[in-house]
Amino acid sequence: MTVTFTLSRRAHWRAIRDVTKRTLSYKVSVGVLLALPIAILAFGLARGPSVGPYLLNNLALLLFGPLIVFVGFPYTYRLTVNRAHKNNALLAQPQTFELGGDRLIMRGPLHNSDVNWRAINQASETKDNFLFFVSKYNAYFIPKEGMTVDEIHALRSTIAEHLPNRADLRSDDPRQQNAAA
User: CA angle at residue 147 from 105 to 5, to 5 degrees?
Assistant: First the structure.
């Protein structure tokens, strides 16, 4: 199977987000940054009637974690993508992924690369991407943006065929759509 696409900034941003969300460091960071305001709020509520001044005095700490998680992280992804697209001629060119035989081949007018299927630790499908992990934190990706439903089904079948027991693919059943997200 062959998939050709020109990578948009939006699709690139989504892929970075999808890969990052799977890392332990991201999960721990989000947990700590969101637990801090909850702990401050709980401590304030335990103080009784003087909760208002306490929360006002700690307003910066209450807002810091959620702002970092919901504004800061997405903003850093956007900065990363903008810099990459500004300085990388490969990203402006059409990318072609060929999935077949014993390897995944990625090529474009300025590059050519291939990876043996054995080198791919896991393939995951998210709402927006197909991710091919070659390490815990590094993945090649195919954005779903611009793909038809039939192409997505065909790609799922091809991935399942080449990566049995290493593919975490979404179901067509709407009740199971969040399972692999």
Answer: 45
